[in-house]
């Protein structure tokens, strides 16, 4: 006999999880307790084991999909296991109070109630929805739930009532066995006239980014300060060092470690840009460490790993940490810890960086620096126009806490170190 | 008056079987081959039941569950010394001891489903229900230990707790009371290094938990809690001491929680992976397995047979679990109060009425 597996609450009070990957394919046999899928929740990534030996007949979602607790995610041929009981209210049976008296309707013997209720085929729906389903002659088993945690809503019941269903639709509320349910096929691109569109649920990471960005934009009073920097000398130094290190088999030395170092050094003298704002307490939180977040583009989206104590590390150490992070970000092996605790963030798209942009502050930090593309541009040096390597550097700051002059002074010191590497060397 | 030394204390730590599986011959207890093999078997049983619970949770068939993985020796070594007359007063992670004393595991699993009936301990098994409020059970253990003394019974009350529990007032009150009244109580503290995300280093400024017993006027000792032989010897001696009315005793078993605190927790967010790996190398089961294999008392085939046998028992318990008639929802009201307060009577009736309408 076939059975469906619904996403359980694998944490405590979870509502949904994102499918990371299937560990099985349709047609494959799984053994009892063999993991068949990997799910990412707010709590952790966990493997889901098969409740019994069975053959996979259908996968209802694709990796990256968001699955609600209670939704059918996979179907098997084999016997259905009992599942966790539905909401407690479903099971309310005759009073068995010790010392309490009830004036409720004649008591059903608990054993009978309990037996009825031990039926695993329970659906999540309020009494009102159940009554509605009875009235409309809809079997709850035929309804695709859209509510939180797999709950069936009134609307679901109404929708189901309007759908033409095979003549076998039961007219009582007796739920059919879940095995009889085949979930509707997954949403496919719908062709309506000439217009086509397709809906794709956000990945877990995308949702995290979406919320963080919107929150920052909603709360921080963004101002962006932009300056032009002449990095001809810095580039020359970096190029020499880079060749030297690479012949010795060292890490790839880009310009980024120099910028990280310059920012971390400037932050020592400008602690407000390294602080955060505790909105609840209405307090500025000054940090005695300088942990620089580095926005990294990965296939899945933006992540911001952290170079801890960047002001105390030398360029080589920073360079090898960056290489390691980039590699592990690509393989999605960064741990949560590595993505937490930045006090200030640098965002760089390298040659893709455009003329300039207005970065969004990485909440709850107070400032972020954007590094833009380096180009050959005419510059005036000692009264002469010369071709130089220059770039724009932007700094968005939260004007609730940081005034324009404070940010400008930080940028002045930061740019001075970038333009005059001999000054930066004093900090190494 | 000159300054004189009023007292001093020494905290001992016992280890017999080291992590590489080598025993200290001089300290080796006089246990027959069968008992030695039995210790390994009982640890393997615990782990098998534990692994199943994790799977059941991931399948949505039980709710939150706290794994004992890594603490099998600390529980098996003690269990072998228990007698029917002893009282067990468990905290939240003692399923191994309870299983070893004969608690049907479907009852334990049903506890993880929020089933009140799980707290109805079968007749003949002297145990109190699991105690979720941390350290509160130690007061019960002190009281039971005092009762045993008043009744002149040659038995012990074993109060279980974790390292985190020792920061609770209840822990100190229980130890003090037991010390003053000479309760026949063994305080059995499994120091697994963590209380959810709080490391032991933040639990106390004292070097050991064992030494706290001295402050309350009785003795405590440490034992390598991943060494089932040391746990066996230490708890044997402690239980003899307690049962014979010489006063309470405290054992601190040094062990490690290999899994997350519960299924609602993710330990990788706060524990360095290297620490977990270091403890994996000290696994209580592989240590004993190595020792017994070298003695020619254990091989792969025996292990495969045992695991197959226990797995069948586990599946039978799962069947028993799922064959349990569903408890009435009103159970959530019915066992806390002797007389239900008016507001709860109202809620209880509302629950009954609403669920009737919905049928
Ligand atoms: C009085 C009380 N406070 C807090 C909690 C929440 N809680 C549950 S387990 C736990 C940590 C217990 O740590 P420990 O005593 O070391 O036992 P372990 O979980 O390591 O076995 C806490 C704080 C509780 N159950 N009771
Ligand atoms: Mg602990």
Report on the architecture of this protein:
- The complex is a heterodimer of chains A (428) and B (359).
- Chain A contains nine helices and 20 strands.
- With 428 residues, chain A is of the alpha+beta class.
- Chain A folds into two domains: 2-158, OB fold (Dihydrolipoamide Acetyltransferase, E2P); 213-425, Chloramphenicol Acetyltransferase.
- In chain A, strands 11, 14, 15, 16, 17, 18, 19 and 20 form an eight-stranded mixed β-sheet that branches. Chain A has a four-stranded antiparallel β-sheet with strand order 1-8-6-3, with no helix packed on it. A four-stranded antiparallel β-sheet of chain A has the order 5-4-2-7, with no helix packed on it.
- In chain A, helix 6 (256-269) packs across helix 7 and helix 6 packs across helix 8 (404-419).
- Chain A starts with a strand and ends with a helix.
- Chain B starts with 12 loop residues before the first strand and ends with a helix.
- The mean pLDDT of chain B is 95.
- Chain B has helices at 33-58, 72-79, 95-100, 105-111, 136-150, 169-181, 212-215, 228-243, 273-280, 284-294, 300-323, 331-334, 342-358, and strands at residues 13-14, 87-89, 157-162, 185-191, 194-195, 198-199, 219-224, 249-254.
- Chains A and B meet through strand 5, helix 1 and helix 2 of A and helix 1, helix 12 and helix 13 of B.
- The site of magnesium ion (MG) has 6 residues of chain B, from strand 5.
Per DSSP E runs of 2 or more residues, the count of β-strands of chain B stands at: 8
Tally of structural domains of chain A? 2
Gap between N and C termini of chain A = 70 Å
- Strand share of the residues of chain A? 15-25%
Q: SSE order of chain B, as H and E?
A: EHHEHHHEHEEEHEHEHHHHH
Q: Please count the beta strands of chain A (DSSP E, at least 2 residues each).
A: 20
Helix content of chain B: 40-55%
- The CATH level-2 architecture of the largest domain in chain A is identified as 2-Layer Sandwich
Secondary-structure-based class of chain A equals alpha+beta
Integer-rounded radius of gyration of chain A: 30 Å
What series of H and E elements makes up the topology of chain A? EEEEEEEEHHHEEHEHHEEEEEHEEEEHH
Give, in spatial order, the strands making up the sheet with the most strands of chain B. 1-7-8-4-3-2
> Poorly predicted ranges of chain B (pLDDT <50, ≥5 residues)?
none
> In percent terms, what proportion of residues of chain B is strand?
5-15%
The 3D shape of chain A can be described as: elongated
Give the class of chain B from helix and strand content and strand pairing. alpha/beta
